[in-house]
Specification:
By secondary structure, the chain is of the alpha+beta class. The chain has two domains: about 160 residues, Trna Endonuclease, Chain: A, domain 1 (3-Layer(aba) Sandwich); about 80 residues. Helices cover about 35% and strands about 25% of the residues. The protein has a four-stranded antiparallel sheet with strand order 2-1-6-7. The protein has a four-stranded mixed sheet with strand order 5-8-9-10, with helices on both faces. It comes from Blastococcus saxobsidens (strain DD2).
Length: about 250
Amino acid sequence: MTQSPRAAEAADSLRADGFQVGYLTEDGAELRVPLAEAWTVAFEHGTPVRRFVSRKGQRHLSGLWWSSSTGGHVGFESWLERDNLMWLDFDPTVVGIASQPFWLRWTGEAGEQASHAPDFFARRADGSAVVIDCRPVERRKPRDVAKFDATARACALVGWEYRLLGAPEAVETENVRWLAGYRHPRHRLPESVEALRRVFATPTPLMAGAEAAGDPIAVLPVLFHLLWSHELTADVSVPLHPETLVSPAAGTR
């Protein structure tokens, strides 16, 4: 298929921007491509380009997060990364997530060779993508900021959203962390799901609705699962409590 003049001009611009993207193929080899070609790569299914190293006395703890969006594990290298990864998993538009998805390489202002591996790559259901770095504001050194700025420029060129994230809001994160404990589909019990949908067809206090749907000990895990999956909704900007109003998601009444 012949490119339009505008598309060809944009492709030439991307080839000339000086950015190169390196990612791992299925056999573990690194493949480097111009930024323009990276747009077509399914980074959400890729292998991390850096190893997650754990050592005695390190400041941050690495781990694996089981993602309900992907049905698999995604690595993180700090509690900050874990919390922001959890929020990605909670986002109903996200269908794929990968950590340390690629190396972005370029030539710096002083002529030095620079590189950066973003923390996460997420794919949305509409095909769009977001690249994420996590770093507390107080720990963003000038050298790091230069790399984040370069990554933002590269993402803008290729049509990806870029986010540089610090600590998420504390109360909301505590609420979502609680709901995340019920994100696995084993908590989706069909009979309880249907009972809860009937009870919460109109806004109803959380505990009163759970009691109306059955034994709360059995029903509450299902209720929290439905809140995690956005089939029911509640205000997570304030602490969840027995009187929290739970409502049907938009378009499900």
